[in-house]
Amino acid sequence: MRHVAHFGPGPGAYSDARTGNFFPETAPLGPALLPAPGRHPLDSFRTLLPYLRLHTRQYVIGLIAVVIATSVNLLPFYFIRLTIDGLTGQVDADPATAGITLGTAALYALGIVAAAVTAGFFMLVMRRQIVVASRQSEYEIRRDLFAHLQTLDKPYYDRARTGDLMNRLTGDLSAVREMLGFGAWQIVNIVSGFVTAFAVMFSLSWQLTLIVVAIVPVIVGVLTYLARLISKRHRLAQEQNSLISARAQENFSGARVVKGYAIEDREIEDYRAMNLELLRRNIALTKVDGPLRSFMSLLLGLAFGLILLVGGRLILEPGSTFTVGMFVQFVGTLERLTWPMLMIGWITGIIQRGLASWVRLREIFDAQPLVRDETGRTDLRLRQLRGDIEFQNVTLRYGSTTVLSGVNLSVPAGTFLGITGPTGSGKTVLGQLLTRAMDPTAGSVRIDGHDLRALPLATLRDAISVVPQEPFLFSDSIANNIGFGIEARDLPEVPTGVSVVGAPPPADIPQTPDPLKVREAARLAGLLGDVEDFPRGFDTMLGERGVTLSGGQRQRTAIARAIVREPRILILDDSLSAVDTETERRILDGLREVSQGRTVLLIAHRVSTLRHADQIVVLDGGRVAEQGSHEDLLAQNGHYAQLERLQRLASDLDADDEAVADPVSAADLLEQKVTR
Ligand SMILES: Nc1ncnc2c1ncn2[C@@H]1O[C@H](COP(=O)(O)OP(=O)(O)OP(=O)(O)O)[C@@H](O)[C@H]1O
C-alpha cells in the first residue's frame, strides 16, 4: 500500500546515477538551479546543519578515518625508500638504511601490505559512516519534504508544476546527497592529502617541494577550468536530455491524439530536430571531456620530467644526503597528489550544485499553506460534526475575477441538496470552500454553526468526502482505490526532523481495506456488477499496470471511495455525467440509502439527476439565482424550468427519432445551447 513507502527509501532510492564518465551524471541542471537571487548559498547551508547534526558522530568518525587512510597511504613509499636505499647500499642519517638483509626486506614488504590493509580498512570505515550518513540524510530530507508537501494546499499545487516538483524530489535531492557524502569526504581527502603529502615531501627535499609548489597551482587551475567547461556542457546536454524525454513521454501518453489528428510526421520531424540538438551538445561535451586525461598526463609528465632533472642533480651532488630511495619516495608521494588535484574542480562543481539544489529544496520547505490550523483560532476540541451547512454572504475572488458573490445558503444536516447552473457559475468552488481548499474572500462558511476557520482541518476533512469532477485513480487494485480513504485512518504519525538511525521498524500496517466495506460501497455506487465481471474482481489492477476503466466506471469507483468513509457530508461534483440513465437511477437509489442522516451536495446538469433532491439551488454568475424543490422551481419558471423543458424535449425527440442515438448527449447539446 502506498503509505508503506513512507517508512523507508525504496531500492531505487539507493541507485547512484554515476556514468563511467569522468564526471558524475547528476540531475538535469538548468538556470533554475542557480541560487535564488538575494540568498547566498552559504546562508542556506546553515539551514542544512540540523540534518547534518543528526549524524555528527558518523561524520566525525568518518572524517577521522579519511585522514588516517590518506596518511597511511603514504607509508608504502617510505618502505620502498628504505628497501631501495638498503639495496643500493647508500647510507644516510637514518641507521635503518645501513644495509639490508632478506629478512628486513620481507619486513618492509609486510609493512607495505599492512599499510594497504590499514588504509583499506579506514576507507571502509569512512564509507560505512559518511556515505551511509549521506544516504540517511537523503532519506530524512525526502521524508520531511514529502510530509511538508502534504501540508501544502490547493493554491500551492495550482501554481506548482508537477514535473518541477518531481525533479526537485529526485534530481535536486541527489545533488544534495552527493554533496553531503562524496563531496564531504573528498574535501577532507583533498585537504589531508595535500597537507600530509607536502609535509612528507618537504621533509625529503625543500628544493623539489618548491618546484611542486610552483607547478601544482598551474595544474589545478587548468584542470578546474576544464572541469567547469565540462560541467557546463554536461548540464546543457542534460537539459536537452530532459526535453527529449518529456517530449517522448507526452507523445506516448497522447498517442491517441497524435494518431487521431494524423500528425505523426510532424512529431517525427520535431523529435528528429531535438535529437540532433542532443547529438550536437554531446559532441561538444566529448570535445572537452576527451582531452582532459591526455592533458593531465601531459602536465604531470612535464612536472615529473622537471623533478627528475633537479632530483637527479641533487643525488649526484658531492656529499649529498639525498638518496635514490628518498627520490623515489618523493615521486611516489607526489603521484598520490594526482587524484586530489583532479578532484578539486570536480568537487567544486559538486558543492556548487549541491548548494544550489538545497536552495531549491528550501523553497519547498519555506512554502506555507494559506489554509491551516491556527493557534488562537482553531478549536482543537471540535472532533465530531453533524453536518449543518451555512454559507453567510460568501464572496470569492481570484484577482479581479469575482467567482462567488454574496452567496447565502442554509443546508440542515441530512439534506439532499442538488446544485446546478451554467458552466463556470461557481458550483465546484462552492464545494471547494466547504473543504477549505481555500477560504472565502468575504463572508463565512459554517458547519454546525462553527466558522470553518475554527474547525481543525483534520476534523473537517474527516467529515467530508468529495467526488471530484475528474476523479483520480491510482495504479493499484480496485479494492485499494475504493478503500483509499479508510486505510489512511489511525496510522501512526511519521515524525519529521529526527534521525532515521535507530528508528524502530515500521509498524505492521494492514495491507487491505475491509473487503466487506469495500464491496458494500461498490454496491451502493452501482459498481458491483462491473467489478464482478472482471476476472480478478476487486483485485483487478487499474492504470498502467492493469485495465482501463470506462469514464462511468471511474466515476462510480470514485463515488464508492467517497461513501466507504461514511462521511457526514458527501459532495458529488458532476459525478453522474458519464453514466447512462439506468445506471444513474441505480446510483441515486444507492445514494439515497447512504444519505440517511448525512448531508449530500449533488452537483449536476441533468434534471433527471436532481429532481428527487430535497432542495435544489441554481447558481448563475456566482449568485444563487433560484432555490427550492423540483416542483417549486418548475413553478418559478426560471432557468431550472427551462432546463427541464429542453431536456424533456430532447428525450422526446430521442424516443421519436432513431437517429438520435444518445439522449444524454442530445439533452446536453440542447442545454449547452440554452446556457450559452
Ligand atoms: N484557481 C482559479 N483561479 C482563477 N479562476 C478560477 C480558479 N478556479 C476556478 N476559477 C473560476 O471560477 C469560476 C467558477 O468555476 P467552477 O469550477 O466553480 O465552475 P462550475 O460551475 O463548477 O463549472 P462546470 O459546470 O463547468 O464544472 C470559473 O470561471 C473558473 O474559471
UniProtKB/TrEMBL annotation:
InterPro entries: AAA+_ATPase (IPR003593), ABC1_TM_dom (IPR011527), ABC1_TM_sf (IPR036640), ABC_transporter-like_ATP-bd (IPR003439), P-loop_NTPase (IPR027417), Type_1_exporter (IPR039421). The keyword Transmembrane helix applies. One of its GO terms (cellular component) is plasma membrane. Keywords: ATP-binding, Cell membrane, Membrane, Nucleotide-binding, Transmembrane, Transmembrane helix, Transport. One of its GO terms (molecular function) is ATP hydrolysis activity. Pfam families: ABC_membrane, ABC_tran. The chain crosses the membrane at residues 59-80, 100-125, 182-202, 208-227, 295-316. It is found in: Cell membrane. The keyword Translocase does not apply. Residues 60-353 form the ABC transmembrane type-1 domain. It is a multi-pass membrane protein. It comes from the Bacteria. Its main location: membrane. Residues 389-646 form the ABC transporter domain. PANTHER family: ATP-BINDING CASSETTE SUB-FAMILY B MEMBER 10, MITOCHONDRIAL, ATP-DEPENDENT PERMEASE MDL1, MITOCHONDRIAL. This is ABC transporter ATP-binding protein. It comes from Deinococcus arcticus.
